[in-house]
Structure prediction request, 585 residues.
Amino acid sequence: MLWKNTYNEFVKILAKPRSYIGLAALTLLILIILFAMKADGRMYISFVTASFEQTLSFNGNILNGNLIAFIVLQMLIVHIPLLVALVTGDLLSGEAAMGTLRMLLTKPISRSQVVYSKLIAAAVYTLILVVWMGFLALIVGRWVFGTGDLIVLNSDGLVILNYADILWRYGLAFLVAYLALMTIATLSIAFSAFADNSIGPIVSTMAVIILFTIIGSLDVSVFDYIKPWLFTTHMASWRSFFNDPVPWKAIWESVWILLAHNVVFVSLAIFQFKRKDITS
Amino acid sequence: MNQEPIIEIKGLQKQFGSFTAVKDVSFTVRKGDVFGFLGPNGAGKSTTMRCMLSLIKPNAGQIHIFGKNLFEFRNEILTQVGSIVEKPDFYKYLSARKNLEIFARISGTAVSTKTINETLDFVGLSGRDRDKVGGFSHGMRQRLGIAQTLLHQPELIILDEPTTGLDPQGIIEVRDLILRLKNEQNKTVILSSHQLAEIEHVANRMVIINKGKTIIEGSVSELMNAQETLLSIELQERSQDAFEFLQKQFSALKVEVISPKTLEMNVERNMIPAVNAALVNAGFAVVALEPKRTLEDFFIQMTQS
Prediction:
């Protein structure tokens, strides 16, 4: 029954216009970034490298597909949660709002299976978003701008990565970014289990992200104890793959914390959904 | 009539916070019954129906369906149940056919395309099956809801206000459908409706609940026959003679002349054939006998007392 309902979820997601908003918005945003970089990328790069030009000489194709993919990831990872929540926040509560949840739950399928099937559908949808982003940023970026060494400016300074040493970093970076987005998906599903309208869970998810991000960025000692446990702190862990050496311990910590959040959010969704009286 | 109980509800209670929606509802539905479920707005009908489908968990009481505890054997039981609760809602962005396919897939029974076609045809939607439900009228959605209920050939059918929004022809079709389900397939049907005449036409047993409590349960005909009704008697002529005759024959009953051709008398429903026979045997030309006490009167009396 789980797989039959999961199949149903895919049918519904494919037929829903809002499912394509994310993909369309992502495509448009990345194409705008690619166009902007093609038109004015040299100036953007020289602005970043200006402070190092007295000590370093930059040769070769600095503005390449690898750098474009990094810029795209950095710019969009903040916005993609909204696109994910737009679909996943609606999965349970949207059915309640439409009245179809009542129809669905009079069928011989357990409530846990309903949540799991929606979770699987959300995971696949989020994966498609990440893969599509990867394709546009990395593959199209390389096709338009060519390849070359990747120059990354992070808190420790400038990191230069050989072009042959980059693809695996992107592979793992997208994987961790996917896990971070799944945390958003499971959070919005958990909110969705409490609500009977479509907008509430989407707005609540974004509110939590904004709140946690603000707490994470406040340099106040009272928050120092909770900052490492906030999932938003680990949303940008994918960036760590572009450090040299790669801080594996910190990345694994982030992965475990994100996984733990996923488990907690899914458990919360199942707990609430199982005890919920369907009055809609 | 087979006496095997299909649904047994005992002492059902449900509270939402401090509000008690259902205080003490008990009734039994037997195999092959078309069971009328009556009650005024806010009586607890919807909550009880939702409890019967495990949409709402009761605070107390027992629900046994097909002899099994609903909350222990939920999936097994729901495989044999088809239902519409309140109103049928569908995925508006999908076609009628896709909607049926979605619900058929999780019905617990293999439903073939042929069955879907036949069901769509049965409810008169076969020409609109590729259209999105968003463009359907309320009546069409109601028909689709009934199709969804019947797809997997359930033993028990629970219909909450199934004729709401239907035109008179649609109401007659649903009524015929319910009778066919009972007579041809021996299905058990629970029917809640505000169209009390509808219940009177199709139900053989009923329960009335009010303020979250069972008021009365039993056979529709027995409950109705045991009640005194106002009988309107239309004659071709001589209503005054008929009045005198009836006063002699049924001295305990109150008779009144309404017009030269019409009389009214208070009589128990099961005595109506005897009144008719007496009048005919005495040579009066009886045009019509119309019991004016309907289920509606009975319902109002029960819920207001």
